Every structure is written in C-alpha cells, then in structure tokens.
Amino acid sequence: MTVTPPDLHPAVAAVTDRVRARSATRRADYLSRIRTAAAPPAAPAREGMGCANLAHGAAACGPDKIALTATPARNVAIVTAYNDMLSAHQPFETYPALIKSAAREAGGVAQVAGGVPAMCDGITQGREGMELSLFSRDVIAMSTAVALSHDMFDGAVLLGVCDKIVPGLVMGALSFGHLPVVLAPAGPMSSGLPNKRKAEVRQRHAEGTASREELLDAESKSYHGPGTCTFFGTANSNQLLMEVMGLHLPGASFVNPGTPLRDALTAEAARRIVTAAAPPMGEVVDERAVVNGVVALLATGGSTNHTMHLVAMAAAAGVELTWGDFSDLSSIVPLLARIYPNGTADINHFQAAGGMQLLIRELLGAGLLHEDVVTVDGPGLSRYTREPFLSDGELVWREGPGESLDKTVLRGVSDPFAPDGGLRVLDGNLGRAVVKTSAVEPDHRIVEAPARVFDDQAALLSAFEGGSLDGDMVAVVRYQGPRANGMPELHKLTPALGVLQDRGHRVAVVTDGRMSGASGKVPAALHVTPEAAQGGPLARVRDGDVIRLDTLTGTVSLLVDADEFDGRPVPSAPSTATAGTGRELFAAFRDAVGPADRGAAVALPTR
C-alpha cells in the first residue's frame, strides 16, 4: 500500500525554505541555463551538427549508424568508472553491452561517451596517493563534462559507486542538467567475514598481537569478490543518497552484482532514457531532493564525507546547502539504522531487514522527507517504497515491507536507536567541524583532555608504536586540510586510537583532515575549518592545551585563556612533499580549492 505522507515536519519545512531562499538567484540562473539548452533548436543538439561533425560521432557505430544519423532515435551516453582493480567497479565491464542492447530494443542507440578515473581510498589509505583522492572528485566532474560535451546525446546512464566517483559524476552531469540522467550502480559484494571480526583483528595487529598474515587473511575474507565493500562508508552512503534523491530506479542501490535482477535494473535504466521517461536531471536535483539526501544520511549515520560532497553536488545544481542545515536537521531526525561501523550488520543485512523501501516509508510517514519531488521513476518519492523483482523474467515492482524484519539493524521512527541523527556539527574557538556520533558509545561522547599535537598521521602512529601515547588525550592532527595536502583520509589512525580507548583512556581526535566515511568508535572532530594551513586556530594549539569535545552540546573548544591564545604567533606550516605519485600535477587544485564547509571544491564556485 502506497504511503500517504502527512504534513511536512516543521523543521524540515523551515530548513527547505531557508535553502530555497538562500539559493534563489543561483538556482534561477541554473534553471534558465539548462532550459535554454533544452529548447529547440538546441536539442537534440546533433540535429544541428555539420555533416562532418556527425559523421565523426557515428563512424564507429556499426549497426547503429543509420539509426543515429538518419532517424530521430535517442542516443544514450554511457559515462563509466569501470576498472577491474576496484571490486565495486569491476562489474561495470559488462554494462555497456547490456545498455546498448537494451537501448536498441527500445528503439534507441547507446555509446560509451567517456571514462572517468576511479581510485580507491581503501588502497591508498596512509599512502601518498591518498593526497589525490578528494581532488579526484573534481577531476571526475570535469571528465564527465568532457564526455558529454560532444552534443551527441539525448540522455545519459552514469556508472559509478565509490567515494568520490558518484559525487563527481553528479557534479559533472548537472552541467548538462537539461538531459535526463539515471545512475546505475553495481551493488554490494556478498557478505564475507563480519566487519566486527575484521575490526578486532586490525586492533590486535596495531597492538602487535596479530601477525601480518592473520591481518591479511581477515582483510581478504572481508573484501573477497566483485561489488561494493559491505560496510556503511562513503560508497554505500552514495547509493543511499542517489536512491532517496531520485537518481536511481527504486530499489536499485543494494542488489548484488552478477544477478539477473541487477542486469534487469541496468537495462531498465537505458530504456528510461530512450523512451524519455526520465525527466531532466537538473529538475530532479532541487532543494527538496537535497534536503531529502541530508535527512536520509542523518537517519542512517552515513559518511561524514557527505558534509562536503552533498554541499558540492547541491552547488552544481544552483542549491546552496550549509553545515547549519545539517545541524538543524540532525536535531530532529532519528537514527533508524545500525550498519557497521555504527553496528555489527553490513549493508546486505540492512537491505534484508527492509532496506531503502522501509527507511523511506518510515521517514515519509513521519513527515521527514519531501514526497512531492521529481524522480527518474516519475513524480513522488512514495514510488521508492516499492522493491524490484522479476516475474517470469520481467522487471516489476511491489510494495516493500511495512515493518523491519530485524530491529537490531533497522527500526521505525516510533522506536529509533537514538532520537537525533548520526552526524553533528561542532562549533567553538577551534573553528567548525563535523563528528559522526552514531558509532560512539554514550560514555565517550564528551572528552576533555590534554592535546597531543601532530602535523601528520605518521607522527601519531610513530608515537603510538614507540609507547609514548599513554593516558587521556585529544589527538590534534593538523595541516591535513584541502589547501595543505588535498585532505587525505586518516583512517589508519582508527585501530591505534581504538586500542588506547580500550585501555580505559579518554581519547578523541580533532583534525582539519578526513577520517573516513567509516569513522568509528573514537569521537573525531573532522574537517575543521578554517584549516591550519590557512592560519586557522589549530595551527596555534600546543601539547598540553586542554581541549573539550562535546558531541552533546555540539562544541569543540580549547580551554586556554583567550588573550594568551590570541597572542601566540602562527607558526610556519611544516615543509611537506608536493611532488611524487602525481602530486605535482595538482598544485593548481591546492591553490584553488575552497574550504570544507563549502564542499572543498575546485570545479565549482566557492562563493
């Protein structure tokens, strides 16, 4: 039975109205631009091409050449993040042939318009390549724009899953927001070694009680085959957002790769473009869809990285989202899911318990989501309470479960895991930061302790291995912001800090870097802005200064006399390597990137 939403929650309505008013000029300019691009004779653009231009675009189309050049057949651009090094993207190898076949059957054509890079933070953690990770999002946005710039296409299917890939694809495609666009994911790998067991082995290895062989065995049993990693980091947060924002087909996010249902959903994505069933992307991504994305992220305790990615994606559509909007929504959105690292279950368990269909049903029923949105499946978010299945080989949808099948993983609004969202915004004399609270136990949500200051994560790990970290502390890891070195994730700190916490110490982290979409049990004030490299307060913190991180009141404060602190000189930033592993190619990005709370963007305006 379809959900009939009640009136919108007053706080959700107020935030949406505020976003709409703040964005009015930029959004109007954006809509004017894409509507001009869609108006005849501008679209389809290839009809106005010179013969030589069109011949180049159709030269290698084989049996589709006549359809592309001599008839009004719709042409689907495929923009793919395929590579076979990343488990999440390896399934995309077969997608282009499937999409082309489905497009042909529907009376259209499909072409691979371009590829985009897809790097894995799991591989580059703690390595120099991680300093390219955040910037890869903007490279992907630019690459997507290059792919679509040939004016050959009537719509697009975007193939991407992981951390920076989906936000980059969305940002780039929104520059062509007059085109209908569907994102087609690969789905999660099947469940392997439980995440809790993997985390235990990591922590024992950090203590020196598990061998490298034991650690590699545990990691390999966890990350064991094609598909997205099953913990609830940025990759799976991406899928959740694309579905609740109406850019996936209903129920597409968490269907495993290599299954008939997965293939059927991919083929249907192509058909939606060929049959003009999907609306223009720029009309789908509006302030209501953006607020829906924030609400779903908070309700599941999703990736902290999306406090930047959602801001950047929204900006690409002319919508100005702020951390204040996250904060206001967090106070009224309940936590409905426990997925590792916020619990022991993985994303497959979440889907089996009721998944996206139940999550959306519950949030709609409480007035926490906008129902009156435009989606690639048609008008109204209540369409996304349905789940896909195959009936005699045909893709159809039916209503999803009305209640959770496992309340240790997914609950309703009337019985949440917590009354507020899994992410909080922190303010104080150290700047502004975000913290993921959903995995932090209640007795660790307030930490007041002396600072231990490090200028990179290697220095902290060296101190841990040398035995000099003993007692309560707030680890300050600075000069890790986007201007300093590209804002690498500092996830390798998690096992060491977890060990210290398990020894009974009060431990927290304050950093202008990222900690990972899978930030865990140690409270971490992340993305501190202004960053140390731009003279932010973190640059003047000294060993022994007392810091109070309070996730309940939303504050992060240095408990030092204000006059004394203000009188401290700002030290020179440490000398860091800016060459090697391609880092020398990104100097212009480091110079141009905006602050974290504005999306840490290069390819978008920061004002």
UniProtKB/TrEMBL annotation:
According to the lineage, what is the superkingdom?
Bacteria
Which residue ranges does the record assign to the Dihydroxy-acid/6-phosphogluconate dehydratase N-terminal domain?
Answer: 75-381
Keywords from the UniProt entry: 2Fe-2S, 4Fe-4S, Amino-acid biosynthesis, Branched-chain amino acid biosynthesis, Carbohydrate metabolism, Gluconate utilization, Iron, Iron-sulfur, Lyase, Metal-binding
Descriptive protein name: Phosphogluconate dehydratase
* Enzyme Commission identifier(s): 4.2.1.12
Its UniProt pathway annotation is: Carbohydrate metabolism; Entner-Doudoroff pathway
Q: Which Pfam families match?
A: ILV_EDD_C, ILVD_EDD_N
| InterPro entries found in the cross-reference section | 6-phosphgluc_deHydtase (IPR004786), Dihydro-acid_dehy_C (IPR042096), DiOHA_6PGluconate_deHydtase_CS (IPR020558), ILV_EDD_C (IPR056740), ILV_EDD_N (IPR000581), IlvD/EDD_N (IPR037237)
- List the catalytic activities from the record: 6-phospho-D-gluconate = 2-dehydro-3-deoxy-6-phospho-D-gluconate + H2O
Which Gene Ontology terms of cellular component type are present? cytosol
Domain (Dihydroxy-acid/6-phosphogluconate dehydratase C-terminal) spans 409-600
Query: What is this protein for, i.e. what is its function?
Result: Catalyzes the dehydration of 6-phospho-D-gluconate to 2-dehydro-3-deoxy-6-phospho-D-gluconate.
Q: Which residues form a coiled coil?
A: none
Top-level EC class: lyase
Q: Which GO biological process categories is it annotated with?
A: branched-chain amino acid biosynthetic process; D-gluconate metabolic process; Entner-Doudoroff pathway through 6-phosphogluconate
**What GO molecular function annotations does the UniProt record carry, in alphabetical order?**
2 iron, 2 sulfur cluster binding; 4 iron, 4 sulfur cluster binding; metal ion binding; phosphogluconate dehydratase activity
**Family listed:** Belongs to the IlvD/Edd family.
* Needed co-factor(s): [4Fe-4S] cluster
Q: Kindly state what the record says about how the cofactor is bound.
A: Binds 1 [4Fe-4S] cluster.
Report residues binding [4Fe-4S] cluster: 162, 229
The record's PROSITE patterns line, in alphabetical order, gives: ILVD_EDD_1
